[in-house]
Design a protein that fits this description.
It is built from six helices and 18 strands. The chain is an alpha+beta fold. It has one domain: Anthranilate synthase (4-Layer Sandwich), CATH 3.60.120. It has an 18-stranded antiparallel β-sheet that branches. The chain starts with 10 loop residues before the first strand and ends in a 5-residue tail after the last helix.
Length: 349
């Protein structure tokens, strides 16, 4: 059997709610200011998919693993191997020394073939992740006819909107325990907070952008993060198009200054990030609410070859002057290890 099965009908699952009954799909962000409940997938490279659904109901996560057969554990391939990644870190050091950038996020994409095209239900993978790696912004977008099949276990808030109030929760700083976090991690977080403040300041009322939390420690399965909160009040007339223009792609997965970091990323990375490091989540246009996660800890299926689907997953680290290349490589391994094991069916914790 080739391609997604008939049971892989369109759906979205976020925050304990299941959306079904696909009505329409658009790439126009202005649609998010219209009516209805929308699932949103915004690729790092700029492809926006907004899908409106007719039915939204409470629904727990799907059963763990039903309909899913993951890749063989030894079949994963990285777009940048250890030598290429550490060389990239050293190249970013050169850009920092030249005064071109203060920080840049260097990422790599892991890929593995899925062994059975009939057992590739991305929502079933979401069930596995919910069991093995609970996350505050976990969810599914399943739109196989539109090339969007995403399962996310993201811990990071990109944008939350409640009427005119907008907030972001950038993560910078990762370790196995709080004791692993360095001064470098705190400095990295503060740099990105400044960037996010600047981004939100472009669309918020003057004087309303604040930082209620700075460098709070959050515990997640297998690791800890430093997380800050930035919020503000949107100016009258600002909708989703202007909000995206001001803030996308997320600062925590690009660098500072953002424009320089994006140029460096483009030169060093050898695979598109796609949903990874983009935005994924939901918008309720009727209520004026929405919650979009940064697309980290995120899997997606590539069906370019229908009979040979590929599962992809991204991992990366923020590079500063104080970064040690081997430590940064180890951070990318730490971020990927548990989730890749879950997807491959080898996580036993």
């Amino acid at each position: 059997m080739s391609g997604p099965t008939a049971s892989h009908s369109p759906l979205a699952r976020f925050g304990g709610r299941l959306a079904t009954g696909l009505r329409d799909v658009t790439s126009d962000p202005a649609a998010l200011d219209s009516t209805g409940y929308w699932a949103v997938a915004y690729d790092f490279e700029g492809r926006l998919t907004c899908a409106r659904f007719d039915e939204v109901r409470p629904d727990p996560a799907p059963p763990a693993g039903a309909g899913w057969l993951g890749p063989a554990p030894d079949s994963w391939h990285s777009s940048l191997d250890r030598d290429a990644y550490t060389a990239g870190v050293r190249r970013i050091h050169e850009h920092i020394a030249a005064g071109e950038v203060y920080q840049a996020n260097l990422c790599r994409v892991l890929s593995a073939p899925l062994p059975d095209p009939a057992r590739t239900d991305i929502d079933a993978l979401t069930g596995l992740l919910a069991h093995g790696n609970p996350a505050p912004y976990a969810g599914t977008i399943r739109l196989p006819r539109h090339g969007v099949e995403i399962a996310t276990a993201s811990p990071e808030l990109f944008l939350r909107r409640d009427g005119r109030t907008v907030s972001s929760g950038p993560i910078k700083g990762t370790g196995r325990t709080e004791a692993d976090l360095l001064d470098k991690d705190h400095a990295e977080n503060v740099m990105i907070v400044d960037l996010v403040r600047n981004d939100l300041g472009r669309v918020c009322e003057t004087g309303t952008v604040t930082v209620p939390d700075l460098c709070a420690v959050e515990k997640h399965p297998g690791l800890v993060h430093l997380v800050s909160t930035v919020q503000g009040a949107l100016r009258e007339g600002v909708g989703w198009p202007a909000l995206f223009d001001a803030t996308f792609p997320p600062g925590s997965v690009t660098g500072a200054p953002k424009s320089s970091a994006l140029r460096i990323i483009d030169a060093l990375e050898t695979a598109p990030r796609s949903p990874y490091c983009g935005a994924v989540g939901w918008v309720d246009a009727d209520r004026g609410e929405g919650e979009l996660a940064v697309g980290i800890r995120t899997f997606w299926i590539d069906r370019t070859e229908p009979d040979a689907p590929v599962l992809r997953f991204g991992t990366g680290a923020g590079i500063t002057w104080e970064s040690d290349p081997e430590r940064e490589w180890a951070e990318t391994e730490l971020k990927a290890a548990r989730l890749v094991a879950i997807a491959s069916g080898t996580e036993t914790d």
